[in-house]
Amino acid sequence: MVQHIATANYSLLALSKLIATKYYGETLRKLITLVTTDWTTSKQTWERNTMLKIAKRGRNLSFRCYISSMGTFLFYLFVNLLKFYRNFHQSERKLVYQFNYPYNIQKSPNYEITFFIQLCGALYMGLVLCSVDSLISILLLHVCAQLINLGKTLNELVEKLAKQFISCSRFRKDLAAIIERHENLIRSAKTIDDCYSTVLFIHMIAATFQLCFETYQIFMLMTDKNANISVFKMTFLVLYATAVLTHLYFYCYSAERLLTESINIAYSVYECKWYNLPAKDAKDLMFMMHRSTIPLRLTAGKFAIFSLEMYGTHHLFEYGSNSSNGDDVH
Questions:
Q1: How many other C-beta atoms are found inside a 10 Å radius of the C-beta of residue 13?
Q2: Is 293 helix (H, G, I), strand (E, B) or coil?
């Protein structure tokens, strides 16, 4: 039962993310074009360094995501190939996933073809999950990098007016461009959330049930004295739970960074030398400060907000749901 539920959840996640990416393909293509434009039009060295630093962080997270998923799959592949070798000459041969088929799966080459198609399907689902998760996270982190650059650009602009390097009319013109750029970044973050909010809601439900079942199975294997504990099975369950948590951390880290950097714009306005500006010019800065009081978020179904706090709460829920004595977890 646990294996069937895990397989159904895994397939549901991959299918929903694949459908959402295909459905919003044109919108996502525009976002990727904006990322390319930002890299090609950036002229300042410090801007590119900031973007490069954030991009490297996203690449490292993506690499870890692929490593955890592919490591789990390779171990899964080894176990199933071992099963295939042992069952090849048996009268009743088992598949990777046990379902009712409209043909005789025990007959060759039906058994072999079905077995390896199921393995390829598992690999494809893993690649879909890793690719979509990496895409969402990298897009969010790019918005974070642009928010950091925007705050530094604003500080430089205020510094120039305070030292009278530019005129008030030029200051208003450049400030209007900064505000417009800020609005574009806000729209980009909201577009990402709109595209994947429903899918991430499915992700949270599926991942929660999946982790509950998997950790419960591990708990039962460890506590049941009569259970025949398989090292391969325990290793796979641990790797599988780690992979699910890695994907969840991927979202939570990117969303936490987006929330933090969107709020930091208001601090950038406050910390610049606005007190050296004429009163009418200093008042114009309030537009960005007021807008930055509403943080940018990545949500699951528009009511659950991804953050590192939610990641910790998710861990606590999994531990509490599998406590053997039913005590409260604080």
A1: 24
A2: coil
